[in-house]
């Protein structure tokens, strides 16, 4: 048996009105649906007993342009580049960087010649 009552409860919740890219400083606002389509939250957690930043967590917001600038500096393709972990992912990544990091669909059927 439940013994309950109805109460009016006031709740506090965080509402984000804008997000500023940590790298370039440009501020982004939500679209008509309340979504931030061109900014990405990166959650970095430092695990391990011998890490200098042990038990720390960094949250970084990057816009599309700054994220691409960071990714194109990587030596190796990110996991699941173009939705694939195939042996061609590295070649596809290098070609993408060489071609100027143009937007692409991960479902493109074009093969990259290796």
What characteristics describe this protein?
114 residues, single chain, alpha+beta, extended, two-stranded antiparallel sheet, 4 strands, two-stranded antiparallel ribbon
Tally of strands: 4
Helix vs. strand class? alpha+beta
When the domains are counted, the total is 2
**Number of discrete helical segments:** 2
Helix content: 10-25%
Poorly predicted runs = none
Radius of gyration: 21 Å
| Beta-strand content estimate | 15-25%
Order of helices and strands: EEEEHH
Q: What shape does the CA trace take?
A: extended
Mean pLDDT: 83
Largest sheet, if any? 2 strands, antiparallel
Roughly how many Å apart are the termini? 69 Å
Strand order of the largest sheet: 1-2
Task: Describe the protein in words.
- By secondary structure, the chain is of the alpha+beta class.
- The protein is built from 2 helices and 4 strands.
- It has 2 domains: 52 residues, no CATH class; 34 residues, no CATH class.
- The strands form 2 sheets. The protein has a two-stranded antiparallel sheet.
């Amino acid at each position: 048996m439940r013994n309950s009552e109805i109460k009016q409860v006031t709740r506090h919740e965080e509402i984000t009105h804008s997000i500023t890219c940590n790298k370039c400083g440009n501020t982004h606002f939500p679209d008509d649906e309340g979504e931030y389509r061109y900014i990405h939250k990166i959650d970095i957690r430092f695990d391990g007993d011998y890490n200098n930043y042990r038990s720390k967590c960094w949250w970084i917001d990057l816009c599309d342009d700054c994220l691409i600038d960071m990714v194109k500096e990587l030596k190796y393709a990110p996991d699941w580049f173009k939705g694939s972990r195939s042996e061609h992912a590295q070649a596809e990544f290098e070609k993408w960087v060489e071609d100027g990091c143009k937007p692409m669909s991960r479902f493109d059927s074009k093969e990259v010649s290796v």
